UniProtKB/TrEMBL annotation:
GO terms for biological process: endoplasmic reticulum to Golgi vesicle-mediated transport; protein transport. Belongs to the synaptobrevin family. It is found in: Endomembrane system. This is YKT6B protein. Pfam families: Longin. Residues 8-127 form the Longin domain. Keywords: Lipoprotein, Membrane, Methylation, Palmitate, Prenylation, Protein transport, Transport. It comes from Bucco capensis. Gene3D superfamilies: Longin domain (3.30.450.50).
Amino acid sequence: MRLYSLSVLYKGDPKVHLLKAAYDVSTFNFFQRSSVQEFMTFTSQLIVERSELGSRASVKEQEYLCHVYVRSDGLAGVVIADNEYPQRVCFTLLDKVLDEFSKQVSKMDWPSGSPATINYTALDGYLSKYQVR
């Protein structure tokens, strides 16, 4: 059971953009890591784009399960995990991360934010804490 990606995005109008993300691509071949990370970023944005505000869903993409939670205020979170990782744990993690993110990062920064400008450092810690070893 593994978590590969944990991202916070903003579903704005007209498009979705990534605010912050953490990845664990250590199980992939060194030369595949950047393309796997790009795939996860792209997939996360696409799933949020296709999800309604105020919705939760789990979407299977290749051998991964992507769990998405889009809050009614447009803040969204995506966890990409393997098929065995418990869905309930993923949504608990997303609830916790989005609540904490919305308290630490001003809502005014969401529409224009990017991973370089958003100051939120907890994602890597959550990704490793929730990793089942």
